[in-house]
Amino acid sequence: CSMIYGSTGATHFDQLAKILTGYEITGARSSGIFMGILFIAVGFLFKITAVPFHMWAPDIYEGSPTPVTAFLSIAPKISISANISRVSIYGSYGATLQQIFFFCSIASMILGALAAMAQTKVKRLLAHSSIGHVGYIRTGFSCGTIEGIQSLLIGIFIYASMTLDAFAIVSALRQTRVKYIADLGALAKTNPILAITFSITMFSYAGIPPLAGFCSKFYLFFAALGCGAYFLAPVGVVTSVIGRFYYIRLAKRMFFDTPRTWILYEPMDRDKSLLLAMTSSFITSFFPYPSPLFSVTHQMALSSYL
Amino acid sequence: MVGVLLGLGTQMYSNALRKLPYMRHPWEHLLGMGLGAVFANQMVKWEVKAQEDLDKLLLKAKQANERRYFDDDED
């Protein structure tokens, strides 16, 4: 920010837009402006755990208390996506920034898919899954079109509800000291409804229809194809397919495996069960009636460009 | 109707997650049905309003584009 202010003398978005729009092709090049925009973008990418600035996420997600991890995996994604959309759309949007975001999207999708396969702890797996999902969501933003921003908003909303669901389940399981994926064995026998809920959440993360996660990924890849990102969409599809391996592995552990040590699952409190019921209902019932979310996100995307 | 079923289903799901009988505390089911009905009705009304606002915004965008490209407006 200070570099941009130092180079342009402006902090207001309207003034910055007049100075920065198309600065690469006019004669107004400045290394200060370029570095300023780059550092702002890097700062944003750090906060949303996009590759290659994701290193902190798995360790912090694993070490923090579960409610804090849930907050860290949802709130920054929403706020930073809104922030960066405003900065980029109102302030400046050059091809350089778009290339950076394309690269980060592809790298996040690939790393999220591959690194999660090696995880043995539930929270670390969810951290890598979150990194992968940031890649998908960045796809929508990288397009720079109204459909891209709309798909970003849809993706964030659905990602938030899926992540709330997942971390509520992890929080309920942590009461019984479940930390490793192997501890989930026979959850289907001790608490079958919780196992079904977890499976639905994982299948939604994997993008399996007719759950909400499928709608979000479909719209994101559709927007990527619409803006001409013909490499991004197939990478997203392939990494989704690879990611399904570890999501379905969780379901397989719950339904078909036996745990290392048998754990008595304690009943959860009412707040968690209500939250789980509401978010699971949203995930399963979104597909037949998506139009409210589509209308409002279209409106939000359009108003940011007008 | 859909809202009522959704609310009732959510409450029964919540009981099932806690490994309680599905109809434990039936007044909570009534509350869920009522809230579900209100939520569904409000959602439908809100969706209609959002669609109208979207149509107005699309018309505004179309007029702005026509002004920009056909009338050579600088703004």
From TrEMBL, chain A:
TM regions (residue ranges): 33-56, 68-88, 100-118, 152-173, 193-212, 218-247, 273-290
Catalytic activity: a plastoquinone + NADPH + (n+1) H(+)(in) = a plastoquinol + NADP(+) + n H(+)(out); a plastoquinone + NADH + (n+1) H(+)(in) = a plastoquinol + NAD(+) + n H(+)(out)
Domain NADH:quinone oxidoreductase/Mrp antiporter transmembrane: 1-243
Gene Ontology biological process terms, A to Z: ATP synthesis coupled electron transport
Protein name, per record: Nad2
GO cellular component terms, A-Z: chloroplast thylakoid membrane
GO MF entries: NADH dehydrogenase (ubiquinone) activity
Alphabetically ordered keywords of this record: Membrane, NAD, Plastid, Translocase, Transmembrane, Transmembrane helix, Transport
Main subcellular localisation: membrane
Family matches, as PANTHER family: NADH DEHYDROGENASE (PTHR22773)
InterPro entries, per the entry: NADH-Q_OxRdtase_suN/2, ND/Mrp_TM
Compartments, record wording: Membrane; Plastid, Chloroplast thylakoid membrane
Record membrane topology: Multi-pass membrane protein
UniProtKB/TrEMBL annotation, chain B:
Top-level taxon in the UniProt lineage: Eukaryota
PANTHER family the UniProt entry points to: EXCITATORY AMINO ACID TRANSPORTER
Name used for this protein in its record: Excitatory amino acid transporter
